[in-house]
Specification:
311 residues; two-stranded antiparallel ribbon; globular
Length: 311
């Protein structure tokens, strides 16, 4: 079978499995996986293809969750309007953060994003509309476009699935576009990209804004799914968690963050019912994967397959 046909068959099988999944597994669990998978894909666009390590992506994820929750619950906006507002605010924050941080590289870039993220955390703790440590609870899911009742778990699941597929398709299209090729060139050797005439700061800024917007879309969707926006969404631990998901699955691969997010969410969900210390267990698994699969799970599989360059 040709590679193209095999890839189409795998994608078709995966899509069919995603459609049938809520009849086999708990829909809320699946929606959590999809939200964090989109979050990890957004983060991977930045670190995996542009080579920029951000330790502050929880700022976009959490802020968007607050915006979606507030607009839908307090202002009575429709869920689609709440999600658009959350994505737009995250994108604007990404523009501001990017303008500040993008001229620095390596650990300096990471530290600036972490510092800005911590500022967002303290704002979330102090601003009245976030309700401090209580967060915004009881967010109504509402009716999408006035037609689809998101209070129904199956309806909500398929909406979340559509959002994830749309975000994933955008990442795929970006990576396989000329813009994505320039990002890879910047990741591999930025001085050479500059010498070829590319204004690398502009490319990195666009990638940063796009990544922040998608992270915001994931955060807003998560707020509707769990009907809650809380401080947990903006903590530095959340930024670390998305780094963990991406590295476990395979940084720089399209499906790696999806696999990493599914693995981490599954471990957190099922280990929570046991007496085992969840962070310690996940940390041990992370260390094992780093030692055995330095390219991440999907990255290692792709490396061992024939035609590994065709991701």
């Amino acid at each position: 079978m040709e590679a193209g046909a095999r890839k189409a068959l795998l994608l078709g099988g995966g899509l069919l499995l995603a459609v049938l999944a809520p009849f086999l597994l708990y829909p809320v669990f699946l929606m959590k996986v999809l939200c964090f998978a989109l979050f990890a894909c957004a983060f991977n666009l930045l670190i995996g293809f542009a080579g920029l390590l951000s330790f502050g992506h929880a700022a976009f994820f959490g802020s968007a969750a607050y915006i979606a929750a507030h607009t839908v619950k307090e202002w009575g906006w429709a869920p689609e309007a709440g999600l658009l507002a959350a994505t737009a605010v995250a994108g604007l924050m990404g523009l501001v953060f990017g303008l500040i941080a993008i001229r620095r590289q390596g650990i300096y870039f990471a530290m600036i994003t972490l510092a800005l993220s911590q500022m967002v955390f303290f704002l979330a703790l102090q601003l009245p509309f976030t309700h401090g440590e209580d967060g915004i609870q009881g967010v109504p899911r509402g009716t999408l476009f006035g037609l689809f009742d998101l209070g129904q778990p199956l309806t909500m699941y398929y909406v979340v699935l559509a959002i994830f597929l749309g975000g994933f398709a955008l990442v795929w299209r970006t990576v396989h576009s000329p813009f994505g090729q320039v990002l890879k060139a910047i990741r591999e050797n930025e001085p050479r990209a500059v010498s070829l005439g590319y204004r690398t700061d502009r490319y990195k800024l666009v990638a940063f804004v796009l990544s922040a917007s998608l992270a915001g879309l994931a955060g807003g969707t998560k707020a509707l799914v769990f009907q809650l926006a809380s401080l947990t969404d903006v903590t530095w631990q959340m930024s670390g968690e998305v780094v963990l998901m991406t590295l476990l699955g395979g940084m720089g691969t399209l499906f790696g963050p999806v696999v990493g997010a599914a693995l981490v969410v599954t471990l957190e969900s099922y280990l929570a019912a046991t007496s085992l210390p969840v962070p310690v267990v996940i940390g041990c698994i992370f260390v094992g994967c780093v030692l055995l699969f330095r390219r991440g799970i999907v990255g290692e599989i792709l490396h061992r397959l024939p035609g590994k360059g065709n991701r």
